[in-house]
Specification:
CATH class: Alpha Beta
Radius of gyration: 22 Å
Order of helices and strands: HHEHEHEHEEHEEHHEEHHHEEHH
Pathway: Glycan metabolism; pectin biosynthesis
EC number: 2.4.1.-
Keywords: Glycoprotein, Glycosyltransferase, Membrane, Signal, Signal-anchor, Transferase, Transmembrane, Transmembrane helix
Number of domains: 1
Low-confidence stretches: 7-26, 335-340
Shape: globular
Protein name: Hexosyltransferase
Helix content: 25-40%
Number of helices: 13
Enzyme class: transferase
Number of strands: 11
CATH superfamily: Spore Coat Polysaccharide Biosynthesis Protein SpsA, Chain A
């Protein structure tokens, strides 16, 4: 290389070192700090365990879903009457814990949270391929192991997906009466339940007999209230794993982690108002086309399906309802040249 060209290359590299963000900032998502939400005057003290609202979510530092998780947490806090009484239980790959802890504490310095290890090896051998690769990620199955991962002192949990926002007080959902049921969720009995399983499943009485004496309805597993005491007592993790093993051998469904829940719980779910899961806003699992809200009031908007609001907004192809998600997006878009 000629001396003059070598000098020019060195000078350009030096300039870029100053212009580009540090390695850690360039490779890790950055979020703005959220406001500090405080309890109202009518709230019980946050150290009263009987008034805590326990919320479980997964955190995936290696995918854009982290951006959705941050927005979901922000929405819960913003609409809570007693935000300091909310305790978050995050499940994540152990390799991501240091980065996740730093991200959560810098974005929500006041948040009460616990970070739990979910080892992908726990479930990798049980996962079968589905119609969309994103549905095959181990963290999608972490909800099956909540009762095992959370301490025994946590007896009830609200599980929330990462592609939703809450626009109502989460304590209202927390307080629903599960009666004799282990799980509560909005049910959609008008959906064609047979579509969630293959013809091989329905033609084999050894499999289909599982719905005998039950009237099964579809429910979405992205929003669930769970009695962890009953779950542990009934060994429901093992029952879900049983159906995943059946799937490995016989291919009785196509849709990720949802069908095992339907096989174990459908027809035995405490129905919750539909307002708590206005789901399907991400369209179907193949095209992710825009959709409208279902009729009725809204407490939670859920972009289940292929289309995620942060991806459509960034691509300048947003659907109308994506504008409702945008105010909760704390992702920091850094420009190459800073004017600060």
């Amino acid at each position: 290389m000629p001396p003059n060209l070598r000098l020019l290359t060195t000078a350009l590299a030096t300039v870029l070192l100053f212009l580009l963000p540090p390695h850690s900032a360039a490779n890790h998502p950055q979020f703005r700090e959220a406001p500090a939400f405080r309890n109202g005057n009518s709230c019980p003290p946050p150290d009263d365990n009987s008034t805590i609202v326990h919320i479980a979510m997964t955190l995936d530092y290696s995918s854009p879903y982290l951006r959705g998780s941050i927005a979901a947490v922000f929405s819960v806090l913003q609409h809570s009457t007693c935000p300091e009484n909310a305790v978050f239980h995050f499940l994540a790959n152990p390799h991501h814990h240091p980065h996740l802890r730093k991200t959560i504490t810098s974005t929500f310095p006041y948040l009460r949270f616990h970070l739990y290890t979910f080892n992908p090896a726990t479930v990798n051998h049980l996962i079968s391929s589905s119609i969309r690769r994103a549905l095959d990620q181990p963290l999608n199955y972490a909800r099956i192991y909540l009762a095992d991962l959370l301490p025994a002192a946590v007896t009830r949990i609200i599980y929330l997906d990462s592609d939703l926002i809450v626009v109502d007080d989460i304590a209202k959902l927390w307080k629903i009466n599960l009666n004799s049921h282990v799980l509560g969720a909005p049910e959609y009995c008008h959906a064609n339940f047979s579509h969630y399983f293959t013809a091989k499943f329905w033609s084999n009485p050894v499999f289909s007999v599982t719905f005998t004496d039950r009237t099964p309805c579809y429910f979405n597993t992205g929003v669930m209230v769970i009695d962890l005491i009953k779950w542990r007592k009934q060994r429901l993790t093992q029952k879900l794993e049983y159906w995943m093993r059946i799937q490995k051998r016989y291919r009785i469904y196509e849709l990720g982690s949802l069908p095992p829940f339907l096989l174990v719980f459908a027809g035995n779910v405490e129905g919750v108002e539909h307002r708590w899961n206005q789901h399907g806003l991400g369209g179907d699992n193949l095209e992710g086309l825009c959709r409208d809200l279902h009729p009725g009031p809204v407490s939670l908007l859920h972009w289940s399906g292929k289309g995620k609001p942060w991806l459509r907004l960034d691509a300048k192809r947003a659907c109308t309802l994506d504008s409702l998600w945008a105010p909760y997006d704390l992702f920091r878009h850094e420009s190459l040249f800073s004017d600060s």
